[in-house]
């Protein structure tokens, strides 16, 4: 029997757009090709006069958009002879780096803030065999430490300051255009370390330069109110938010995020934890898409801007949902209805069912 795998991962699919050659050892878990889903139910519930789509990057192999950048970063690290990679992480980067390093047969070292990482992300790094170091500090401190380490040891840094990470992550824009048949008018996403909004914009520009699309979207970035250094205009020493993936007080890609905002004519705003959690619950209950809280910042931001009259009627908008809800299951218990406990008999269950029908 001939087994065919039509999708070969983003490097093979968009080979001409990446700094690779046929000699590059491609390390892939077949990332990319994630769903673009029309959010028809939410539009009806909220009465939004928009054409709204979710790009669900939580469907990537390790459950987040980080896999797009990691396939390229690890492939290039292997090509350059690296035997180990290192990163600081709020969770998703460590999960992705650990998985792709395991796939490549090299060691991964991850630094995470103690007690500040969602359980689902921590266990991923652990099971993939990474050396997990918890520091008594925050993400920004962890990033400073790993930056210093790579200056002294032959280890490859795979945070988003690694240019290959941004190269891989730009593939989201390619896929959105291929799936829609054009570029959207707006593209919204959460902003933490700010590499992803920079990557999205880079991808759109490159696709337009190649004649694949005729127009460019306005880029919309949303930070959590408790971790909004770009919006506030200064680093946040002790960032706090329920959206752990974007709990970052001094983004490494701050300048390029501002460039993406300004060049595209978009905006970077902030949303409260309450707004994030409301959107988080709504996306799951209305559309059947379980994303992690940080992902919902994009939808929360769209709702906020819509109320301000920011969008024209019928605007075509894509929201990137960056991570899978299974990454952070504990948050569900804060927002979802609790399970009902009934006696184990048909009469009791029937009586309850009749009440809710």
Automatic annotation (TrEMBL):
CDD domains named in the record: Thr-synth_1
Single GO term (MF): threonine synthase activity
Catalysed reactions, semicolon-separated: O-phospho-L-homoserine + H2O = L-threonine + phosphate
Pathway info: Amino-acid biosynthesis; L-threonine biosynthesis; L-threonine from L-aspartate: step 5/5
One GO term (biological process): isoleucine biosynthetic process
Domain of life: Bacteria
Residues annotated with N6-(pyridoxal phosphate)lysine modification: 66
Coiled coil: none
Short name of any one Pfam family annotated for the protein: PALP
Domain Tryptophan synthase beta chain-like PALP, residue spans: 27-323
NCBIfam families: thrC
Annotated family: Belongs to the threonine synthase family.
Protein name: Threonine synthase
């Amino acid at each position: 029997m001939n087994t065919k795998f039509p999708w070969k991962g983003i490097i093979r699919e968009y080979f001409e757009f990446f700094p690779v050659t046929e000699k590059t050892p491609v390390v892939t878990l077949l990332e990319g090709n994630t769903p673009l889903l029309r959010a028809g139910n939410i539009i009806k519930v909220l009465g939004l006069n928009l054409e709204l789509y979710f790009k669900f990057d939580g469907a990537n192999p390790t459950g987040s958009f980080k896999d797009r950048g990691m396939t390229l970063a690890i492939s290039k690290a292997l090509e350059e002879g690296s035997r180990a990679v290192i990163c600081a992480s709020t969770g998703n980067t460590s999960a992705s780096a650990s998985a792709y390093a395991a796939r490549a047969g090299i060691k991964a070292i991850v630094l995470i803030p103690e007690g500040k990482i969602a359980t689902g992300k921590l266990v991923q790094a652990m099971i993939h065999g990474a050396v997990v170091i918890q520091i008594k500090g925050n993400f920004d401190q962890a990033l400073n430490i790993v930056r210093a380490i790579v200056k002294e040891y032959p280890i490859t840094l795979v945070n988003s300051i690694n240019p290959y990470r941004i190269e891989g992550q730009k593939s989201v824009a390619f896929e959105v255009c291929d799936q829609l048949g054009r570029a959207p008018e707006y593209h919204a996403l959460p902003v933490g370390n700010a590499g992803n909004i920079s990557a999205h914009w880079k991808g759109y520009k490159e696709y337009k330069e190649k004649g694949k699309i005729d127009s460019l979207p306005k880029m919309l970035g949303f930070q959590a109110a408790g971790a909004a250094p770009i919006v506030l205009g200064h680093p946040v020493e002790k960032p706090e938010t329920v959206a752990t993936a974007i709990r970052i007080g001094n983004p490494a890609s701050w300048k390029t995020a501002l460039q993406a905002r300004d060049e595209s004519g978009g905006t970077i705003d902030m949303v409260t934890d309450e707004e994030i959690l409301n959107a988080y619950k709504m996306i799951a209950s209305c559309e059947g898409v379980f994303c992690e809280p940080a992902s919902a910042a994009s939808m929360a931001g769209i709702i906020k801007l819509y109320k301000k009259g920011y969008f024209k009627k019928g605007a075509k908008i894509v929201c990137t949902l960056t991570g899978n809800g299974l990454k952070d299951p504990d948050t569900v218990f804060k927002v979802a209805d609790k399970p009902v406990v009934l006696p184990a008999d048909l009469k009791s269950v029937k009586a309850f069912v009749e009440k809710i029908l």
